[in-house]
Design brief:
heterotrimer; A alpha/beta (about 375); B alpha/beta (about 375); C alpha/beta (about 250); A: about 375 residues; alpha/beta; 14 helices; 5 strands; about 65% helix; C: about 250 residues; six-stranded mixed β-sheet; about 40% helix; about 25% strand; globular
Chain lengths: ~375, ~375, ~250
């Protein structure tokens, strides 16, 4: 009973401190909006509208037809260049064009005579990803062009069916990721800094000389950030659902319940960082280090399947990896415990281990 | 100027006396380079594909072989179930299921219209979009080479050539951007926090009562971080060039010069933030929101600026990392010089001047 | 056997090879204002922090209010108050908010807490300053609010580490008047200071030098035994003697 009041006093105190600083408050609420809006609109890794310079030295009916088939389908944005091929390098260096199609003389005549008609596509490879995709598109278009020229209609087509995200919107995929990332960032960073701040400012000593118990102190110090984390998460979800119209397929209680479990990992990490640092700068640095590792190996930006095997094994050391899969699974696929149990088990294990480790390391008395 | 040296020395002592932070300041860029170099592979590969082949002809098997040999698709973790083809997607064992109904081989010879079925897990929109376009590419190429078409020495023979990065390595694209981000993190984040720290713990008052101007105080506090940022930049560059084989074609001197200008822009941002923040927590959060996030998301580092909506494209013009990134990529990968890069260079210099003036002004007002 | 407020025996604290406190022994009775004197860096703060359960001793034993400082250090805490050398209340909270927080932590609630805060505001004449953020207050008022936080729960012993550092003479005098009143009410005070005029207010003092207690006694008796005029001279002569030895 007594402990409960102590925890409440700490929580009240902590909230007073956070809310007294208007700038802090603004930032805490600005962050999810900014992240969502920027990521929601910026993330479009689809490679389209590749700016392509056309050097058509043939100027025949067939060469124009080939150029037209290249520009169909929104893959290439073709613009004719009147200048010589020699300005190609300059065009690439200034980023005016990322690809160039060169059609030599006699292209049309070769085709009409049933010969091989060489043409070439030159691609700016500095963005490896879009260059590779552009080459794939070009090859496909050339093949289609040939099939049509041979009088064979494209009788084989693909009928695609997208499950879970039928409009293939990146936002649908990013928002659940952002929810997981925000929760991690806010809680690890603010918890570690809040505890170390008391040490740095000397206020911790005054608290440690009171009969406050370690669990009460830890709870009082972490609950405010858990609450803030949940508020951030809910804001991100609200913006995602109301503004971007992302669907929510799964169970709300399951999402919040498992988030609470995950919070033990991040809050524990925050406490742990605070036990190995003595200034806020250090704490921020250590927290950063953890967060960057966690985000980069979580599959947030780049799929884990793409990583080399060694890195793939490393991702198992990252609790965020499991939470990311859980959030995405619940929100997008409506997954429940029966399909997510492996990830849930791993996350529970991490939460228990990290939080206990943090509690063990935290001591009221200096050695 | 002697006073500035004194403050610089004090700040360097602070940094050196805290070996753990220094260790992280040096380890973090290296870790990030390795992670970006190895882990962040933006080209989507190894899409897990399950196949339900009801045609069972050599033509259908040839098609399946082409999918798996393309490098884009890999075998699924479990085979698809004929009764419920979607289950394998829901469990996450596959990203795509291809269904080849009977009649594929006949259709290939032009008999009748035919549809291949492709079930995609849309949860990862990028992956499913890539899977869709890759399968289109593979099928069209297969059709293009099927009997009766281009194989007999007829039709367009499109040869393709890649400039600057013939092996199409992601790291060549990412390392220059990573340098821009790390310089921003070290410069803006650290300076805003270290200045806020002096305010929070009350030592700033002490410093300002000493016979040094506020400008000198800031200069002194900031110069050591220029050194640290440069050290980190060189570290990332070395790992990128030596380990990942990222080319450095253009002038290193040019890189260093613009690196310095960019660092000044970042430090000015850091100082600006510190004038708004009374505590280190606020400084850290503000630096995160105002400098690090835009540098990652709005600089063209990962997300292409030309794909963004107009308003965001406009905002990217205010992000120094955007210009520095183009300069870095131009100089490193394409060997560009000022003759080509002058618009970006001019924009970066203008933006830096603006930030520097704003930082000095605001700092004066705060102190005075 | 006598009931002592503080008993320490051979207490030491080593930081690496450096002994900040080097085997000190001491007995403080209830009802005393005990002055814990020493030059800067003599080890006073380290010793106090061990007594308050903030720092684990390297060796030696001791009790505070009858509780063992090695094993029962958490039990010591409800019965002591501590005012550290550096202002350690929350600067961004008001005095009242700070007192509410600490009061609750010490188990005071509701009407009792309100009453106690009102009593302290009244007794320490804090009414003008209690509702402003403590970080913006003049040092003297900050110290008073810190004292209020230390005695909020009516501890039997209050440890005060340089409570009047950086405070003008008028404020210091008033602060000591408050301490006297506290002592009259039966609170045991354990004060470190390097103001010799303050030390003369103490019923007994000890002088510490380089981690060791050089001498313990009543201020007047110490001055008399050396045949000097005042405590200041006594202190200087004792310390310089030690300095040539060590």
């Amino acid at each position: 009973m007594r402990h409960m009041w102590t925890v409440l006093a700490l929580v009240t105190k902590e909230f007073r401190q956070v809310f007294r600083d208007r700038n802090m408050l603004r930032l805490i609420f600005l962050m999810p909006f900014l992240q969502l809006v920027i990521l929601g609109y910026a993330v479009d890794t689809d490679v389209r509208r590749i700016h392509t310079a056309v050097y058509d030295f043939d100027r025949s009916r067939l060469s124009r037809e080939f150029v037209r088939s290249m520009s169909a389908g929104d893959y290439f944005l073709m613009s004719t260049s009147d200048r010589s091929v020699l300005d190609l390098d300059e065009n690439f260096q200034t980023n005016r064009f990322n690809a160039a199609l060169v059609i030599p003389r006699d292209f049309g005549r070769n085709l009409e005579n049933g010969n091989l008609a060489p043409a070439s596509l030159i691609v700016d490879g500095s963005n490896a990803n879009s260059a590779g995709i552009a080459m794939g598109y070009a090859g496909m278009i050339a093949a289609q062009f040939n099939r049509q020229a041979a009088g064979l209609a494209p009788s084989i087509s693909i009928r695609q069916k997208l499950l879970y995200n039928s409009e293939a919107e990146s936002v649908y995929y990013m928002v659940p990721g952002i929810v997981a990332v925000l929760l991690t960032m806010i809680t690890v960073m603010l918890t570690s800094m809040a505890i170390v701040r008391e040490r740095e400012m000397g206020t911790l000593e005054q608290v440690m000389v009171t009969p406050i118990s370690t669990p009460a102190f830890i709870l009082g110090k972490t609950i405010p950030f858990a609450v803030l984390g949940f508020v951030e998460m809910s804001l991100a979800l609200a913006v995602g659902i109301l503004w971007f119209g992302i669907p929510f397929a799964g169970s709300w209680p399951l999402l919040y319940g498992l988030s609470l479990v995950y919070l033990f990992t991040t809050l524990g990490m925050g406490i742990f960082v605070s036990t190995i640092t003595s200034t806020q700068q250090q704490a921020m640095f250590f927290a950063w280090f953890f967060i960057i590792f966690a985000i980069m190996t979580s599959g947030f930006f780049a799929p884990i399947e793409n990583m080399p095997p060694v890195v793939q094994h490393m991702t198992y050391a990252n609790p965020l990896r499991f939470f990311m899969r859980i959030v995405r699974g619940i929100m997008m696929k409506g997954a429940g415990v029966n399909t997510l149990y492996r990830d849930i088990a791993a996350m529970v294990l991490y939460s228990a281990a990290i939080f206990s480790l943090a509690l063990m390391r935290f001591s009221k008395r200096h050695r | 100027m002697g006073n500035v040296r004194f403050i610089i020395l004090k700040e360097i002592r602070h940094i050196l006396r805290d070996p753990r932070s220094l260790f992280i300041a040096i380890l973090m860029p290296i870790m990030m380079t390795f992670l970006y170099g190895y882990a962040i592979n933006l080209d989507i590969k190894n899409i897990r594909l399950a196949v339900l082949d009801y045609d069972q002809t050599s033509a259908s098997r040839e098609l399946v072989g082409r999918f798996y040999h393309s490098g884009y698709f890999a075998a699924s973790l479990a085979p698809a179930d004929m009764a419920d083809p979607e289950a394998v997607l829901k469990r996450g064992d596959a990203h795509a299921v291809m269904i080849i109904r009977g009649g594929f081989a006949e259709a290939l010879r032009g008999a009748a219209p035919y549809q291949l079925g492709l079930l995609l897990d849309g949860a990862d929109a990028n992956m499913s979009a890539a899977a869709a376009s890759y399968s289109n590419v593979i099928i069209q190429r297969y059709l293009g080479e099927s009997p009766g078409v281009g194989a007999a020495g007829r039709g367009v023979a499109l040869s393709q050539r890649v400039l600057y990065n013939p092996d199409l390595k992601s790291s060549h694209f990412l390392v220059p951007g990573l340098i821009a981000i790390i310089l921003m993190m070290i410069s803006a984040l650290l300076t805003s926090v270290t200045i806020a720290r002096e305010k929070e713990t009350g030592t700033m008052e002490q410093l300002l009562t000493a016979p040094v101007g506020p400008f000198q105080v800031i200069l002194g506090k900031v110069i050591p971080y220029v050194g640290l940022a440069l050290l980190d930049g060189v570290l990332v560059l070395s790992v990128g060039v030596l380990h990942f084989g990222v080319p450095l074609i253009g002038s290193s001197l040019l890189l260093l010069f613009f690196g310095l200008i960019y660092i000044i822009a970042a430090l000015s941002l850091g100082v600006l933030i510190s004038t708004l923040a009374r505590t280190q927590q606020v400084a850290m959060m503000a630096a995160l929101v105002a400098t690090v996030l835009p540098s990652v998301m709005l600089s063209g580092f990962i997300f292409e600026i030309r794909n963004m909506p107009a308003l965001l494209r406009f905002i990217t013009m205010l992000v120094p990392a955007r210009y520095f990134l183009l300069i870095m990529r131009g100089v490193m990968l394409k060997g560009s010089g000022l003759a080509v890069l002058w618009p970006q260079a001019a924009a970066l210099v203008a933006l830096t001047t603006l930030l520097l003036v704003a930082a000095v002004k605001r700092f004066r007002i705060r102190i005075g | 056997m006598m009931d002592y407020a503080v008993v320490i025996d051979g207490l030491s604290k080593k930081f690496g090879a450096f002994a900040a406190v080097d085997g000190i022994s001491l007995k403080v009775e209830y009802g005393e204002i005990f002055g814990f004197l020493g030059a800067n860096g003599a080890g006073k703060t380290t010793a106090i922090r061990m007594l308050c359960g903030l720092l684990q001793p390297t060796s030696g034993t001791g009790t505070v209010n009858g509780f063992d400082i090695n094993r029962e250090y958490e039990k010591i805490k409800p019965s002591i108050g501590y005012m550290s050398q550096k202002f350690s209340l929350y600067g961004d909270l008001t005095g009242r908010e700070n007192l509410q927080f600490y009061g609750t932590v010490y188990g005071l609630r509701g009407g009792r807490l309100k009453g106690r805060i009102a009593e302290l505001v009244d007794g320490l004449s804090l009414d003008e300053f209690i509702d402003r953020p403590t970080g913006a207050l003049p040092v003297g008022w900050r110290q008073r609010i810190a004292l209020a936080a230390a005695i909020l729960h009516r501890p039997r012993i209050v440890f005060l580490d340089e409570p009047t550092g950086g405070v003008d003479p008028v404020f210091r005098r008033r602060f000591w008047e408050i301490l006297y009143r506290l002592a009259d009410d039966g609170t045991n005070l354990f004060v470190t200071t390097h103001y010799m005029d303050e030390a003369e207010f103490c019923s007994r003092i000890s002088i510490m030098h380089r981690g060791k207690i050089v001498v313990v006694g009543r201020p007047r008796e110490l001055v008399a035994s050396r045949g000097l005029r005042n405590l200041q001279e006594t202190f200087i002569s004792l310390i310089s003697e030690q300095g040539t030895d060590g």
